[in-house]
Amino acid sequence: MSSSPDIHQNVLQAILNTARESILVVDSSMRITAANGPAHEVFGRQRETLRGSRLTEILRDVRLHEGFRQTLTSGEPTDLRIDLNAIENRTYDVHLAAVDLGGARHAVGVFYDVTQIERLERVRQEFLSNISHELRTPLTSIIAYVETLQDGAIDDAENNQRFLTIIRRNADRMHGLISDIAELSQIETGNVSLSPVEIKLSKSVADIFAELQAKAEPRGIALINEVDGETKVLADPMRLEQMLTNLIDNSIKFNRENGTVTVTASQSPGRTVISVADTGEGIVPENLQRIFERFYRIDRGRTRNVGGTGLGLAIVKHLARLHGGDVFVTSTLGSGTTFTLELPF
């Protein structure tokens, strides 16, 4: 007793639905004869069923159509990568293979979503490019001055100490960069533990101001602590100092001559809001969206002059979220920038 076509169809559908990847089965007329659940979620777009639809009705990529047609004609498998911009800008590796169903050749297309892998690869490449650039700059300077000293400048009493100071400054810059990379890696992989305690915020800000005063004074920048003496925050002491130091240091670096850096705080049920405001040039809106990214530079030339690793704000973002809070930025061109750190309390 032979099985009915409906039973075969149901078995095929059940098998397809076990796969995580989107799968389409197309016949020689380029119509879809079967599709699994993931394919309906990705390609269905309000359709009750994909079965019976022409491939061109749901996917308009010419290379994909040619791939299906080639597999149907030759019986040979085809592999290709496609970008489907109409479907949330997804990238797929597609494997097409011929299969005999009911005495007729069909092509089975398996869509492997590699969007996240592609994004991670772009992040990796950008990271390597940035780290190479950031390390190459001070290293080039170190090598140049070492060679100058070796060529006889070591005996030049007027310049040898200046050259050594430059070498030391660039070596410190490289050391800071490597330390920040290691720190950020630990935070991102969850290898940092917190020990939150109640901290008097005004005293913490005052201590940080004392440490950074030497950077602010030469440019006439006033450091203003407007945090009430009774305001408390629940945070890991070392990590709170790290976050505030990065924010205040950043506000000093990118401030105007004779500007101000003002720290304020407010509390509401369940949270403490700390604001660090400067009187710098401000940041254009398109840069605000990326300012917390690793190595993101608004102005590479200016950043190189004022120092820094380009990782400070990324570290603040990760540490804030590790505390269960977050950090935000607002800015007005010509007026200044305000960083707002929210922590639970």
Strand percent estimate: 15-25%
Shape: elongated
Query: Radius of gyration, Cα only, in angstroms?
Result: 30 Å
Instruction: Indicate the CATH architecture of the largest domain.
Output: 2-Layer Sandwich
- Structural class call reads alpha+beta
Mean pLDDT: 86
Domain count, please report it: 3
Compute the number of strand runs. Answer: 12
Question: In terms of topology, how is this protein built?
Answer:
Elements: H1 5-16, E1 22-26, E2 32-35, H2 37-43, H3 55-58, H4 62-74, E3 78-84, E4 90-101, E5 104-113, H5 115-150, H6 160-188, E6 197-200, H7 201-216, E7 222-225, E8 232-235, H8 237-253, E9 260-268, E10 271-278, H9 285-288, H10 300-306, H11 312-322, E11 326-332, E12 336-344
Parallel strand pairs: 7-9
Antiparallel strand pairs: 1-2, 1-5, 3-4, 4-5, 6-8, 9-10, 10-12, 11-12
Helix pairs in contact: 5-6, 6-11, 7-8, 8-11
In short:
The protein has 345 residues and is α+β, with helices and mostly antiparallel strands. The protein folds into 3 domains: 5-113, PAS domain (Beta-Lactamase), CATH 3.30.450; 115-192, Helix Hairpins (Orthogonal Bundle); 194-345, Histidine kinase-like ATPase, C-terminal domain (Heat Shock Protein 90).
